Amino acid sequence: MNQERIYKVLLGPHISEKATIVAEGTQQVVFRVASDATKPEIKKAVEELFNVKVEGVNVLNIKGKTKRTMRGMGKRTDVRKAYVRLADGSEIDFLAGE
User: Fold this and answer.
1) Cβ neighbours of residue 31 under 8 Å, at least 6 residues apart?
2) Where are the domains of the chain?
3) What is the CATH architecture of 3-86?
4) Cβ atoms 55, 63 nearer than 8 A
5) Neighbouring C-beta atoms of residue 29, cutoff 10 Å
6) CA 32 – CA 74 distance, rounded (Å)
7) What is the pTM for the complete model shown?
8) Contact at 8 Å (CB) between 9 and 41?
9) What is the rounded CA–CA span in Å between residue 76 and residue 80?
10) pLDDT tens, 63-95?
11) Measured between alpha carbons, how far is 39 from 41 in angstroms, rounded to an integer?
12) How many angstroms separate the first and last alpha carbons of the chain?
């Protein structure tokens, strides 16, 4: 996998109440990923970008809701999330730059 693809696989961290609870309870981090990203690509991208050891990756697709707007029916975009389980002793700190 080339360097350009590594940067396109991970779109950013997914920050939500559930993601925070999962991160505190287990060694997992939740990312929004590209819709065509595979588990091996996600694992390699996280390991290379954050210098951590990844034990496993679970991926799920969330279908966008259909919403009624003033101009008719609209649809929110679909989202693909990856739950990345880190090895013991590994940690990703998103607030390190501040």
Assistant:
1) 10, 11, 12, 13, 14, 42, 46, 81, 82, 84
2) 3-86
3) 2-Layer Sandwich (3.30)
4) no
5) 23
6) 22
7) 0.85
8) yes
9) 13
10) 999 999 899 999 999 999 999 999 988 888 776
11) 5
12) 31
